[in-house]
Amino acid sequence: MSAPALPETREQPAPVAVGKPVRGWRTIVWDDPVNLMSYVTYVFRTHFGYDRDKAEVLMLQVHRDGRAIVSSGGRERMEADVEAMHTYGLWATLEEDPA
């Protein structure tokens, strides 16, 4: 006596979510009259893990243009980055990525 054959199964593709696409968010650091450029570079290197060159480019953008987008991603992560920048004494805001 043999065991009954198992029914053939096919893998079904995972359903695709339909609806609004997930929007990105960005953390913006603003120029201020208080913090030294070397300190802003230090914060970018320490918090975001940027190398010296990237941190300096962003710091100069803050200094020259008045602001720089320093990180982008999901809303909760960007809220945490803004809060961290405030903890370091930098002016930072969160904005929805228009793209």
Relative helix content: 25-40%
* Terminal-residue CA separation: 65 Å
CATH class: Alpha Beta
Please identify which CATH superfamily we are dealing with. Answer: Ribosomal protein L7/L12, C-terminal domain/Adaptor protein ClpS
Low-confidence stretches: none
Class computed from helices, strands and strand pairing: alpha+beta
Taking the sheet with the most strands, its summary is: 3 strands, antiparallel
State the order of secondary-structure elements, H for helix, E for strand. Answer: EHHEHE
Domains (count)? 1
Strand order of the largest sheet: 2-1-3
**CATH architecture field:** 2-Layer Sandwich
Supply the number of helical segments.
3
For the residues shown, what is the average pLDDT?
88
Protein name: ATP-dependent Clp protease adapter protein ClpS
Subunit structure: Binds to the N-terminal domain of the chaperone ClpA.
Keywords: Hydrolase, Protease
InterPro entries: ClpS (IPR022935), ClpS_core (IPR003769), Ribosomal_bL12_C/ClpS-like (IPR014719)
3D structure, described in words:
- With 99 residues, the chain is of the alpha+beta class.
- It has a single domain, classed as Ribosomal Protein L30, Chain: A (2-Layer Sandwich), CATH 3.30.1390.
- It has a 3-stranded antiparallel β-sheet.
- Keywords: Hydrolase, Protease.
- One of its GO terms (biological process) is proteolysis.
- GO terms for molecular function: peptidase activity.
Strand and helix map with partners:
Blueprint: E1 25-30, H1 37-48, H2 52-65, E2 67-73, H3 75-87, E3 91-96
Antiparallel strand pairs: 1-2, 1-3
Helix pairs in contact: 1-2
